[in-house]
Amino acid sequence: MIRRSTWIILLIFLAVLGGGLYFQKYKSEKSAQVTPTSTYGLLFTGFDQTQITGFEIDSSQGKKFLVTMDETGKWVVAGFTAEYTNTSSIDDMLTKITALTVMSNLETAPALDVIGLEKPAYTLIVTLKDGQKKTAYIGNVNPTSSGYYGQLENGSPVVITKYAVDNLINFLDNPPIATPVPTATETSAGETTQTPQP
Q1: How far apart are CA 163 and CA 100, in angstroms?
Q2: Is there a domain that residue 54 lies in?
Q3: Is 197 part of any domain?
């Protein structure tokens, strides 16, 4: 015959075990409810950096940066020759292009003129090996200063991470040119060539 004290201990043990199981289930359900689902994604999709043969940034202020791959497969910044193009910076730039991140999709987007996309501050154009061009427009900085309003061609406006865009538009003022920087000189035939500065 089992003593009464043994039954009490057994009941207490079962109560503690049941409470522990309930608490674990409640905790996991609560955690699942408060964990946000990441909406981060890439702005440009469907290609990687090995398929890019050109990249252009135009600003609404008239500045322009253009780099293209020549027939020998070397990168050339417009206005310079391949020997003065810093290819490691170009490779880094291509990585940044393909990693441009959409922070959030705007379910109810403000009017394009309000977020700076009616007349974009910057236009990014990526040229691919098959001749396709992918165009993205960059507007105003968002209210939290964490991103730019952007739009891929005729798509819906989104918010793109500010740091990534700033890295790209920096090429407008600081093109990836290897030193020494060449200076333009005109030949007797009227052609412009670059010669290194001493």
Answers
A1: 9
A2: yes
A3: no
